[in-house]
Amino acid sequence: MASINLIEAFQDFKDAESIDRPTMMKVVEDVFKTLLRKKYGSDENFDVIVNADKGDLEIVRRRMIMEDDDVNDPNEEVSHSYALKISPDYEVGEELYEEVEILDFGRRAILAAKQTLASRIGDLKKNALVKKYNDRVGEIISAEVYQVWKKEILLLDEDGSELILPKSEQIPQDYFKKGENIRAVVKRVDLKNNTPVIILSRTSPSFLAKLLEIEVPEIFDGLIVIKKIVREPGERAKVAVESYDDRIDPVGACVGMKGSRIHGIVRELKNENIDVINWTSNLQLLVQRSLTPAKITNMEIDQDKNQANVYLKPDQVSLAIGRKGVNIKLAQELTGLSIDVYRDNEGEVEEFDIDLSEFSDEIETWIIDELKRIGCDTARSVLDLTVEELERRTDLEKETIEEVKKVLESEFEKE
């Protein structure tokens, strides 16, 4: 029996584990019944038998054996004399089962069948891929980096399906090499030229939410719920959580003993600072918590204007604003209010400043500690002193001080 090289087509089915055997049989049967209808006008008295393991198939034709003079429809009836040539045991009234050679359809018809079959298999694989990842939107998956491009990264999952991690969905500090395994959340499934494109993300709040779910059993079990997450990827994130069990401290459970639970997430997010706060319906208290680590002395909220005026001591203003204004920006996203920061008792907007600890990614910790030892806690407090004064009061070398000042000055130039 001619197999017409169907093994490759069947192998495609085997590779796509999400396509079940009955579906495969039905597709192959439909393709060849179409051929039969074109050649014989009907497929009713034909059986298509598929052998997926060997990659071939049989087509069996059923016809009723009639007296030689009584044959009216050659597609459904066959003469007794013809049947006797196949086997002398056949009698009038019995059914004759006869194998149809695939090659009888002709080379062009066979080629068309192969192309149709390959196309149908491709469509089924696409549909299966779309369904698989539509069901996994919001879930974390691990995939291997296959190709790194300027605007995106191509990854392969465990089944060899292609996934895309765009540059816009990568944390700014992300750097990946071919062959490396990375974790990301499934953001959405797009269709481009009728081809499914699976988009992943590492900047989405849902990525952080899923990481917390993995690290914190109480969240997975539903004892703690994440009310809201706001992020500036790679810089800072704020997570508001609430406990349904009064015996559980939601913030403590998320952070873990000595930060054991949160540290792994911080490393995954390239040292992104994560503030975990208790959610509350009390707007004033929520604003206070959202401006962590700054401590507020007074506050005025106008809910009609969605406006909050916050007063702090001078040394807390830089903490409330944060480096590049990230802390106050996230606080506004979390609370839904526009927040203005003022120096306590003066009613004037504080000159923009940044806590020195915010530069820990560019300035070594021991240098920051040395500057803090002489009372320089913020960027401006360092810039207000001359290089000579800093050299005299600290154990730092002149070159080191000049480099620190360059880093601090460049930050204010950006602002």
Automatic annotation (TrEMBL):
It holds the Pfam family KH_NusA_2nd. It is found in: Cytoplasm. Keywords: Cytoplasm, RNA-binding, Transcription, Transcription antitermination, Transcription regulation, Transcription termination. Residues 136-203 form the S1 motif domain. Its main location: cytoplasm. The keyword RNA-binding applies. It comes from the Bacteria. Residues 304-413 form the K Homology domain. Participates in both transcription termination and antitermination. Belongs to the NusA family. HAMAP family: NusA_B (MF_00945_B). Monomer. Binds directly to the core enzyme of the DNA-dependent RNA polymerase and to nascent RNA. This is Transcription termination/antitermination protein NusA.
